[in-house]
Design brief:
Elements (H helix, E strand, L loop, with lengths): L10 H36 L1 H12 E6 L6 E2 L5 E13 L7 H11 L4 H12 L8 E4 L4 H9 L7 E10 L7 H4 L2 E3 L2 H4 L12 E3 L2 H5 L1 H5 L3 E7 L5 E8 L7 E3 L3 H10 L5 E7 L4 E8 L5 H4 L4 H8 L9 H4 L9 H10 L9 E3 L2 E3 L6 E3 L7 E3 L1 H6 L3 H11 L1 H9 L22 H8 L5 H8 L9 H12 L3 E2 L5 E4 L2 E2 L9 E2 L6 H15 L16 E7 L22 E8 L6 E7 L6 H16 L15
Parallel strand pairs: 2-10
Antiparallel strand pairs: 1-8, 2-3, 3-4, 3-5, 6-7, 8-9, 10-18, 11-12, 11-23, 13-16, 14-15, 17-20, 18-19, 21-22, 22-23
Helix pairs in contact: 10-22, 14-16, 14-17, 16-19
């Protein structure tokens, strides 16, 4: 018979265990709740401000809006640098989840060139602010805009942005004077206030655009916008409008500028016209020019290479940087120096052979007129441009008086007040030659400088400035581009003050102008082809040698390659008694000085008598 075992449950024990567990769980839950509550309290009360800000940072963004750039006008209100609205396709890399996929999708919708993608990738690697969009394709046509708008919702990080972009309506003739804006680079950011330029795409690079960047730029606007999780802008919360840049009014005359550019024809060269009453630059031409609009949105490497490598040097600003022998245009200044230091006089006669020698058996420095000019005086030496007179004068004077006298007229110095990058040319001196060549200055060096050849080099703007001081009978003004900023005249401080060049005998100014008048009116004058105007012209011709002739070699233009032809130069001002315009022009390899002389007369007729060809009416502006 089996035994049954009875198990007795200890209810009391079980109850107490259960109770313990419940209490433990309750305490545990309570502690957890307290931790949670205190964390919530910490987050929502203590750290409230920080997290609201953080959430706002995710939801609210500050967007800077670049200001509209100030406009640039000529003296009659013709707009030379404008802003026009365009639509651009932009991408914000931070909002793109899969770039290769996006590239594929976009290329399916629009025709995007390899070059555009390459530039985009390059800009992505450059410095920029986070969440700043990068332009992929600018100036979308209406058709392209419509195409991309349909699919915009599928394209993360892609927007079509309306942007104001710089536009130069008259292109190449003005490129070297007005300059251009280009894309901001890291190098540019080092010279400007980063805060102001956030979101800006362009900065002035050259010309007036570069020099007056601060005035033209304005102040950026700031708007607070709310974005959704995908970074799309939902609404604008706050806004501070951008302040447009200041408008500039130049001394430049657009019709004169374009006309001068066209009159150079197929020649390379430069024309500078100044207003002798103010020092204002009426025309600053360097030919060939280029289309400045190419640079605005970042020039393609192919276009840039073709400009950079062109033998005609379209990017080189000849008016400011071109170093030329001033040739015979220097003679009026040399003659004044001779008078000033007592090395020559108006009435002394000189027998001008066909050549000059320092030593009886030495080198022959030839005159342009092989048989010579016979008996002449100082006045005739200007009228007929007698080389031998200036050979002997420079030899007698030596370089120091020449250097000291010519430097008063701005030779060897940067003269322009408001354009960067002007060259200094070269006004040689004894010290300069010692430093550069470890050699003394020789009499032969002086002889060459006497006719504006040899070591002497001047820029078109320098020669024009010097002639202006002569036309003004000694009143020297530094040339300037801009007359007013927002209708306010500019104060250039000490640099902008005119000064007087003093001569021992003040009558020499008038006598020199008179001699230059006879260059045109005299039957042997080198610019007699300009006779017959209803206003009087004072001028001086010049022919600059590009290479040295052997002493007995004749100059034979027919047998020379064109690039070795002489440069042709002319300086002139009118009306000669009280001048309103001064013009310097140079035709590179132009041969005879008849070309620049004719150009000068046409510019005088146009400017003084308002006698422009009809085709320039579109640049007339408001002539009131």
């Amino acid at each position: 018979m089996g035994h049954k075992h009875h198990i007795f449950r200890n209810y009391r024990q079980e109850q107490s265990l259960t109770q313990r567990r419940v209490i433990f769980s309750a305490v545990f839950v309570l502690i957890l709740s307290l931790i949670l509550m205190s964390r919530l309290f910490y987050l929502q009360v203590v750290e409230h401000q920080r997290y609201v800000t953080k959430a706002d940072d995710n939801r609210v963004m500050l967007v800077t809006e670049p200001p509209p750039r100030g406009l640039i006008y000529d003296r009659h209100g013709v707009v030379l640098a404008d802003n026009r609205p365009i639509h651009s396709l932009t991408i914000t890399p931070e909002r793109v989840f899969n770039l290769p996929k996006l590239k594929g999708m976009l290329s399916g919708i629009l025709n995007i060139s390899e070059d555009e993608w390459r530039t985009f990738d390059q800009r992505r690697k450059e410095y920029r602010r986070p969440y700043q969009s990068i332009t992929l394709k600018s100036q979308l046509t209406d058709e392209e805009w419509a195409k991309v708008s349909v699919d915009l919702y599928k394209l993360d990080g892609v927007q079509v942005e309306a942007q104001l972009t710089r536009y130069y309506p008259y292109g190449e003739a003005f490129a070297h004077a007005i300059g251009y804006v280009g894309r901001i680079t890291e190098k540019d950011l080092k010279r400007v206030d980063n805060q102001s330029y956030q979101g800006a795409q362009f900065i002035g690079k050259t010309g007036v655009e570069g020099f007056y960047e601060n005035e033209l730029f304005g102040r950026p606007g700031i708007s607070k916008v709310e974005v959704n999780a995908r970074g799309r802008i939902m609404e604008e919360l706050e806004r501070q409008n951008p302040v447009p840049g200041h408008d500039l009014h130049l001394y430049l005359d657009a019709r004169l500028q374009q006309y001068a550019y066209d009159l150079l024809g197929d020649y390379k060269g430069s024309v500078v016209a100044l207003d002798p009453n103010t020092g204002g630059i009426l025309a600053l031409v360097s030919k060939p020019g280029f289309d400045p609009n190419l640079f605005v949105r970042g020039i393609s490497s192919k276009n840039y290479a073709s400009l950079r490598d062109s033998k005609r040097l379209p990017l080189f600003n000849r008016a400011l940087r071109g170093g030329y022998p001033p040739a015979s245009t220097i003679k009026p200044f040399m003659a004044l120096a001779g008078l000033e230091y007592g090395f020559s006089s108006w009435n002394e006669s000189y027998y001008a052979k066909g050549f000059y020698q320092i030593n009886p058996n030495g080198r022959r420095y030839r005159d342009w007129k092989r048989e010579g000019h016979g008996w002449i005086n100082l006045e005739r030496s200007i009228i007929e441009s007698v080389d031998t007179y200036y050979y002997q004068l420079a030899h007698k004077m030596g370089i120091t008086p020449i250097h000291n006298f010519l430097s008063q007229f701005g030779f060897g110095d940067r003269t322009v007040l408001d354009l960067n990058g002007a060259g200094k040319g070269l006004l040689p001196s004894n010290e300069w030659k010692k430093a550069k060549y470890k050699e003394s200055w020789y009499p032969g060096d002086s002889v060459n400088v006497g006719i504006g050849q040899g070591f002497m080099v001047a820029t078109p703007i320098q020669i024009a400035t010097a002639v202006t001081a002569l036309a003004n009978r000694g009143h020297y003004y530094s040339p300037r581009m801009v007359e007013t900023v927002e209708q306010e005249p500019i104060d250039f401080g000490v640099a902008g003050e005119d000064h007087k060049i003093k001569l021992k005998n003040n009558k020499n100014w008038e006598r020199m102008v008179n001699a230059m008048r006879k260059v045109v009116t005299d039957s042997k004058g080198t610019a007699r082809r300009l006779r017959g105007t209803d206003y009087s012209i004072a001028g001086k011709t010049g022919t600059g040698q590009v290479f040295s002739l052997q002493e007995d070699e004749e100059y034979d233009a027919k047998n020379l390659v064109k690039r070795l032809h002489d440069h042709a130069l002319f300086i002139g001002f009118a009306p000669s008694d009280k001048p309103d315009i001064v013009v310097f022009s140079i035709f590179e390899n132009g041969g005879s000085s008849s070309k620049p002389a004719d150009l000068t007369r046409q510019l005088f007729d146009a400017y003084l008598n308002d006698d422009y060809p009809k085709q320039y009416d579109f640049l007339k502006g408001d002539q009131s």
